TrEMBL record:
Superkingdom assignment: Bacteria
Database matches in SUPFAM superfamilies: Glycoside hydrolase/deacetylase (SSF88713), UraD-Like (SSF158694)
Gene3D superfamilies assigned: Glycoside hydrolase/deacetylase, Oxo-4-hydroxy-4-carboxy-5-ureidoimidazoline decarboxylase
Entry's transmembrane regions: none
Protein's organism: Thioclava nitratireducens
Protein name: Chitooligosaccharide deacetylase
Function summary: Is involved in generating a small heat-stable compound (Nod), an acylated oligomer of N-acetylglucosamine, that stimulates mitosis in various plant protoplasts.
Amino acid sequence: MTRYPRDLRGYGRTPPDPQWPGKARVAISMVLNFEEGGENNILHGDAASEAFLSDIAGAAQWPGQRHWNMESIYEYGARAGFWRLHRLFTRLNVPLTIYGVATALARAPEQVAAMKEAGWEIASHGLKWVEHKDMAEEEERRQIAEAIRLHTEVVGERPRGWYTGRCSANTVRLTAEEGGFDWISDTYDDDLPYWLEVGARDQLVIPYTLEANDMRFATAPGYIEGEQFFQYLKDSFDTLYAEGMDGAPKMFSVGLHNRLIGRPGKVAGLKRFLDYALSHEGVWFATRGEIAAHWAATHPHTRRERPSQMSRDRFVEVFGGIYEHSPWIAERAFELELGPAHDSHEGMASALVRIFRSASEAERLGVLTAHPDLAGKLAQAKRLTAESTSEQASAGLDALTDEERATFEALNAAYTEKFGFPFIIAVKDNTKASILHAFRRRLDQGRETEFREACKQVERIAWHRLNAMDL
C-alpha cells in the first residue's frame, strides 16, 4: 500500500540532545555557495542565460543569448566577492563549508587552491547551477555521477557532502542511493540533523536554510542593507543560544553567496554577526562534515519496526488488541493515509481512535460489551486478556477482600442492568477508591451521557496500551 511520504512529526516534543563538543549551546554552520561559472549560460551548453539570485531586478532568462550584465554580476562573485570572504573567514579562523558546483570549481583553480589551503570543506553543489525540477530521473542520476567525477578530478578527492539547491522531488533519494555521502542537505525541515532510511541506506541529513541566507538580498521581501542581515542573524542566534542554555541545543546554518554577500555594503553585516557570535562562550563553529561526524558518533542510527511500513497482517497482529477484542479497528486503520507521523504512540492512537469514533453506534457498543467487568468472574477465573489483567492489577483489583469483591459485583450488576454494557474506566488513571467513587457517580447518569463517557474511557485505555509499547 502506498503511504504518505512526508514526515510532519520529526523529533516531536522531545528532540535529542546533540551533545555538541565542549557542551556548546549552539553549533553554527557557515556555508559559502560557489556557483559562479556553473550558472545557466549558452557558453555552457544551456538554452538560455541565468536569471536567478542576482542584483538585477526582475531578471528573466534570455533564450539563445548571453546576458552580459548577468554574467558580469556572477563574475564579480568569483573575481572579488570570493576573495573578500576568504580574507574575512581566514582572518577570524572560522571554518567554512563550500557548496561547490563542479563546473564552477573546474573554472576556478586559484579559488579552489585557496579553499584547500584554508582547510575548508568542499562539498558538491551539483554538476551545474541549473533547475532540476523537470529533469528526468536517469538524467539527474547521470549528472550526480558526473558531478562527483569532475569534483574528484578538480579537488583531489570525492565530495562527502551534497546540496543541489534547485532540486527535484528525486534529489534526496538519488543522492542517498549514491551511497557515498556522509551528509546531504536538500531539506529545510529541522534545527537538527536526522537520519533518513532510503532502501538499505541510512543517510544523514543536515537541513539547510533559505531564510538565514544572503539570497534574501536578491528576493522580495528581502534585505536591502547589511544591518538587516546582521539583525536577522543575531536574532536567530540569540534565540538558539537561549534554547541551548535551557538544555535544548540546536544547529544554526547560514547561507552565503560570493556575488551577494561579497559586496562591501553587505559583507559588513556578516562581519558584525561573526564578531558577535565569536564573543559568546559555548559556540561551536563547524563544517557540515564535522557536524556529520559528531552526529554519526553520538547519535548512530538504529532501525526499528515502523507501523506505517508494516504489512496488513503484521499491523493487525501488533495493534489488533489495543481495543478489547476488536481487531476490526486495526484492520480499518491500516487503510488510512498513514505515514511517518503515525510511527509513534500519538500517531497510532490517532489512527485507531479515528476508526473507533467514526464507527456506528452499534459497533462502538460492541467494543464496550467486549470489555470485562471490573474484578468480575472472568478476572477470578483468570480469563482476561493480558492487557486487562495487567490493568486491573495496577489498581489492586486482583487482590480484593471478600467485602470489596461483593461491592464490585453489586455495582457491576446494577450498572450493566441499567446501561446494557459493563462499567469501563481507565484503571491506570485511578485507585481502588476513585474507581468506586466513579462507579457510584456514573450510575446516576443517563444512558446517552454514560455511553459517551464509556467511549472516552475506552479511548483512554487504548492510549495507555499503546504507550506501553515500544514505538
